[in-house]
Design goal:
A hairpin with an 8-residue loop joins strand 15 and strand 16. The protein is 42% helix and 26% strand. By secondary structure, it is α+β, with helices and mostly antiparallel strands. The chain is built from 9 helices and 18 strands. Strands 3-4-7-6-5 form a 5-stranded mixed barrel. The protein has a 4-stranded antiparallel β-sheet with strand order 12-11-13-14. Strands 1-2 form a two-stranded antiparallel ribbon. It is an enzyme of class 3 (hydrolase). Pfam families: PDZ_6, Peptidase_M50. This is Zinc metalloprotease.
């Protein structure tokens, strides 16, 4: 149950921040957001607030922000349509009923002659006295069809009406917010757990090792090796590993006193390369540093960003096979293992997953955010958009291929973890 709760919280946070990025920038661009959904498939819970429906859906495999104009939801009234119209105080149409299922008082019936529900917002038609009249339509009018209400989306509130820059940022904001979430997670870890100092402090000296024989003790702070100042543990490791069999002069600080040792790194038998070891263990000391926590959050975000790109490159070059990929099942099982190592390790895992989600969505593949961004870049270069039908077909094929990949990866996960 702890694993289930951890998975739900982590998954929910990653998807929420990703979709919230799309949502926030869409609202800032003046785009009508019809739905903000966490999860896919059948709706479990739905709450309408303002002009947006907020839903929680059954399948934990993603989420989406549905914007006006994206899914061909534009409403068209054709000549000959019989509609009912409710007017507001200004005489504008506030509700248009396509197929009347409810009885409304003071409803006006029209047989449509022509209409514009996108730009100029008007309806022209014949009333019950067969008189041709024109009615202005309110910008926030609602269209009811078969009992379902849809807020009218004037063209200037549709996704496609916005500039390339605003559309680009609306889509890019999803991955961007995943990177921001990762930064916040790592920063909070630094604030709560402390920031590693990476000082070259010896945590433990192994018995019968070159360091022990030279007189080095737990807690010694290495300050110099061969006259070269040592400021981090990585510098100490580099100096030792590259001098296997060569005597090295160590200067250490112990209880405020400076001591000198000569230690000869022995050749490690656990590596194919000849590297030196002196038999000391290290656990990075930490310190509480409010402002340093932000630097730590940025460092960890950049580190995992580079690491995931490196692993992605290995996959592209064939150093990894498709069996190395994990879907929801694999992520769930890994979360189960990671949770055993404590809260902070689980938080770090969530931060890494957030960066991974952001990078994967930026890949220039159809149906992903990166694929859509490529079409925006192409539009900016050409000076005109790609034909929507052609773009839609490309994204459709991409979705089918991604679904196929998801099925294969999920099946591999099931085979790996349960059989």
């Amino acid at each position: 149950m702890e694993t289930v709760i951890s998975f739900i919280i982590i998954f929910g946070a990653l998807v929420f921040f990703h979709e919230f990025g799309h949502f926030l920038f869409a609202k800032r661009a003046g785009i009508l957001v019809r739905e903000f959904a966490i999860g896919m498939g059948p709706k479990i819970l739905g709450i309408t607030k303002g002009e947006t429906l907020y839903t929680l859906r059954l399948l934990p495999i993603g989420g989406y922000v549905r914007m006006a104009g994206e899914d061909m939801d534009t409403i068209h009234l054709q000549a000959g349509h019989r509609i009912g119209v409710l007017l507001n105080k200004e005489g504008q149409a506030k509700k248009i009923i396509m197929n009347q299922k409810h009885v409304y008082p003071e409803i006006l019936f029209l047989e449509v002659e022509e209409a514009d529900l996108e730009k100029e917002l008007w309806i022209k038609g014949y009333d019950e006295d067969e008189k041709l009249i024109r009615i202005e339509v309110a910008r926030d009018a609602v269209v009811e069809e078969n009992g379902r209400e849809t807020i009218l989306a004037p063209y200037d509130r549709q996704f496609d009406s916005k500039s390339v820059g605003k559309r680009f940022m609306t889509i890019f904001a999803g991955p961007l917010f995943n990177f921001i979430l990762a930064f916040l997670i790592f920063t909070v870890i630094g604030m709560m757990q402390g920031v590693p100092t990476f000082e070259p402090v010896i945590t433990e000296v192994t018995e019968a090792s070159p360091a022990a024989e030279a007189g080095m003790q737990n807690g010694d702070l290495v300050t110099e090796i061969e006259g070269k100042q040592i400021g981090t543990w990585d510098e100490l490791v580099e100096s030792v590993q590259t001098n296997a069999g060569n005597p090295l002069a160590f200067s250490v600080e112990r209880d405020g006193e400076l001591l000198d040792f000569t230690i000869t790194p022995e050749i490690s038998g656990q590596s194919a390369e000849e590297i030196g070891v002196i038999g000391v263990l290290y656990e990075s000391p930490v310190e509480k540093d409010f402002f340093g926590s932000f630097a730590y959050g940025a460092e960890q975000t950049i580190f995992w960003f580079k690491e995931i790109f490196r692993l992605l490159g290995m996959l592209v070059t064939g150093q990894f096979t498709i069996d190395a990929l994990s879907g929801p099942v694999g992520i769930y099982k890994t979360t189960e293992e990671v949770a055993k190592y404590g809260f902070f390790t689980l938080m770090s895992w969530a931060g890494m997953l957030s960066i991974n989600l952001g990078i994967m969505n930026l890949l220039p593949l159809p149906a992903l955010d990166g694929g859509r961004l490529m079409f925006f870049i192409l539009e900016a270069v050409r000076g005109k958009p790609v034909d929507r039908q052609k773009e839609g077909m490309v994204h459709f094929v991409g979705i089918m291929l991604l679904m196929l990949l998801m099925i294969v990866v999920t099946w591999n996960d099931i085979q790996k973890y349960f059989f």
